[in-house]
Design a protein that fits this description.
The protein is an all-alpha fold and 186 residues long.
């Protein structure tokens, strides 16, 4: 099995991302997408939306829902394993991600601000895992955890529905979406 936290071949960084802020934002984006998929699941018979829309060529994505399900099940059963990245995410309830570069306040201030949201990210991350991965990673998930997550997801759906469309996307993301649409001729 390939270790998901290993550096790319020829990398001189020794596994450490050369730009911590980019790494920080990428992790936040992946977690936000996972929460969005949990809160707004794909309709029955359709595969979840993925990388075809932006920058990706789509070559790495299977065609159709059945092929996606087979690919996903194969990845869960045969490829995904516990590694340093999984361990870091599992520690989020006790130890938040490091502060972004050039954080002007003491580290304790970052920890105080970041700990509550990172606990929520950890819970939603565990909620999104298939039961086989929870077991493989040694993560407990009780009925009460599931009920709390369902209440959170319901609240997120209600907040999403009540929020005007322009406010649902950050200004940076809105600009990127507009420029992406112009680049495609939209």
């Amino acid at each position: 099995m390939r270790r998901l936290d290993s550096p790319p071949p020829g990398s001189a960084t020794g596994g450490r991302h050369p730009r911590p802020l980019v790494s920080h934002l990428a992790l936040r984006g992946r977690l936000a997408r996972r929460v969005h998929q949990q809160v707004h699941p794909a309709p029955p018979g359709r595969a979840p939306r993925g990388g075809r829309g932006r920058r990706g060529t789509g070559r790495h994505l299977p065609d159709g829902p059945a092929a996606f399900r087979a690919y996903f099940d194969g990845m869960v059963e045969d490829r995904l394993e516990r590694n340093a990245t999984v361990d870091q995410l599992m520690r989020l309830d006790r130890e938040p991600l490091p502060p972004p570069p050039f954080w002007p306040l003491p580290r304790a201030a970052w920890t105080g601000l970041a700990l509550p949201p990172t606990r929520l990210l950890r819970a939603t991350g565990i909620a999104s895992l298939p039961p086989v991965l929870r077991a493989r990673f040694g993560l407990r998930w009780s009925r009460s955890d599931q009920r709390r997550f369902e209440v959170f997801a319901r609240g997120a759906r209600l907040a999403h529905a009540a929020t005007p469309a322009p406010l649902r996307v950050s200004p940076v993301a809105a600009r990127a979406l507009r420029s992406d649409g112009r680049a495609r001729g939209g």
